[in-house]
């Protein structure tokens, strides 16, 4: 289980739920249901981390709840 924050919202233009992982640049998934978007995000998070390791890039540590103004 990953500890990265996932922001989920409905996209009217895509007619899908979108799941963004703000701490991992470019990490995003979608799904026809809220649950599917979360499940797909978990897969994408793992793939993002694996790719970063292969490329020797730094993997951000989860910070927990992000603060928004």
Please state the CA-atom Rg, rounded to the nearest Å.
12 Å
Q: Outline, from the CA principal axes?
A: globular
**Stretches with pLDDT under 50, minimum 5 residues:** none
Q: Treating each run of at least 4 consecutive H or I residues as one helix, how many helices?
A: 1
Helix/strand/pairing category: alpha+beta
Residue-averaged pLDDT, rounded? 93
Query: Roughly what fraction of the amino acids lie in strands?
Result: 15-25%
For the largest beta-sheet, the strand count, sense and barrel status come to: 3 strands, antiparallel
**Spatial strand sequence of the major β-sheet:** 1-2-3
Fraction of residues in H or I helices: 25-40%
Number of strand segments:
3
What is the number of domains?
Answer: 1
Distance between the termini: 28 Å
What is the N-to-C succession of helices and strands? EEEH
What distinguishing features does this structure have?
alpha+beta, three-stranded antiparallel β-sheet, single chain, 69 residues
Structural description of this entry:
It comes from Desulfotignum phosphitoxidans DSM 13687. InterPro entries: HicB-like, TA_system_antitoxin, TTHA1013/TTHA0281-like. This is HicB-like antitoxin of toxin-antitoxin system domain-containing protein. By secondary structure, the chain is of the alpha+beta class. The chain has one domain. Helices cover 32% and strands 20% of the residues. The protein contains one helix and three strands; from the N terminus they run βββα. Strands 1-2-3 form a three-stranded antiparallel beta sheet, with helices on one face. The longest helix has 22 residues. The protein starts with 6 loop residues before the first strand and ends in a 14-residue tail after the last helix. The mean pLDDT is 93.
């Amino acid at each position: 289980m990953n500890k990265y924050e996932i922001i989920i919202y409905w996209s009217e233009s895509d007619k899908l739920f979108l799941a963004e992982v703000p701490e991992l640049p470019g990490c995003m998934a979608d799904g026809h249901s809220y649950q599917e978007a979360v499940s797909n995000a978990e897969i994408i998070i793992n793939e993002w981390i694996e790719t970063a390791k292969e490329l020797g890039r730094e993997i951000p540590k989860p910070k927990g709840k992000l603060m928004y103004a």
